[in-house]
């Protein structure tokens, strides 16, 4: 039986989070575990941890990290000075997919966004993830915008 606990990630979770990020077809080619890269992950973690508008979260089931995501709370002037949330780096362990973990993670994340006073939650998803698109559609997200990226 699933017993998910959501909590802010701590430094000791970093290796498990990176493993989750690498645990899919796209992440396998983007994430690496070398001493140089480890230092970059470590610095990114410290930057996230020190920013009050960031929440790097893990989902645990009986002590095992089975999911992760990052929430960014974005104050803004548009929409009448509304705050919005960005969710990214959403991953569920490939061994635990199709157990509704993702759905429970999003419900928890949406509740945190509402508590923060956000009026909108947004995400981007790679065009190569049709299963993720169906999942987001089912949760009520709408593909209302086109996203662009510029690799620097």
Summarize the structure in short:
With 152 residues, this protein is α+β, with helices and mostly antiparallel strands. 38% of the residues lie in helices and 26% in strands. The radius of gyration is 16 Å and the shape is globular.
Describe this structure in words.
With 152 residues, the chain is an alpha+beta fold. The chain is built from six helices and five strands, in the order E-H-H-H-E-E-H-E-H-E-H. The chain has helices at residues 14-22, 27-30, 35-50, 78-81, 101-115, 130-139; strands at 4-8, 54-61, 64-75, 83-92, 118-122. Strands 1-2-3-4-5 form a five-stranded mixed beta sheet, with helices on both faces. Strand 4, helix 5 and strand 5 form a beta-alpha-beta unit.
User: What is the 3D form?
Assistant: globular
Distance between the termini: 44 Å
Overall helicity: 25-40%
The proportion of residues in beta strands is: 25-35%
Oligomer: single chain
Q: Supply the helix-strand structural class.
A: alpha+beta
Largest sheet: 5 strands, mixed
Overall pLDDT metric: 92
Strand order of the largest sheet: 1-2-3-4-5
Annotate the secondary structure layout.
Elements: E1 4-8, H1 14-22, H2 27-30, H3 35-50, E2 54-61, E3 64-75, H4 78-81, E4 83-92, H5 101-115, E5 118-122, H6 130-139
Parallel strand pairs: 4-5
Antiparallel strand pairs: 1-2, 2-3, 3-4
């Amino acid at each position: 039986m699933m017993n998910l606990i959501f909590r802010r990630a701590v430094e000791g979770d970093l290796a498990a989070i990176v493993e989750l990020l690498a645990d899919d077809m796209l992440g396998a080619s983007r994430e690496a575990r070398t001493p140089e890269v480890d230092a970059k992950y470590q610095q990114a973690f410290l930057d996230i941890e020190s920013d009050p508008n960031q929440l790097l979260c893990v989902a645990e089931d009986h002590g095992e990290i089975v999911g992760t995501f990052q929430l960014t709370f974005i104050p803004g002037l548009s929409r009448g000075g509304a705050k919005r949330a960005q969710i990214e780096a959403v991953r569920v362990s490939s061994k635990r997919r199709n157990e509704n973990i993702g759905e429970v993670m999003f419900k928890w994340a949406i509740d945190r966004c509402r508590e923060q006073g956000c009026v909108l939650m947004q995400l981007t998803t790679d065009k190569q993830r049709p299963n993720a698109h169906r999942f987001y559609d089912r949760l009520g997200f709408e593909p209302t915008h086109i996203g662009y990226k510029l690799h620097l």
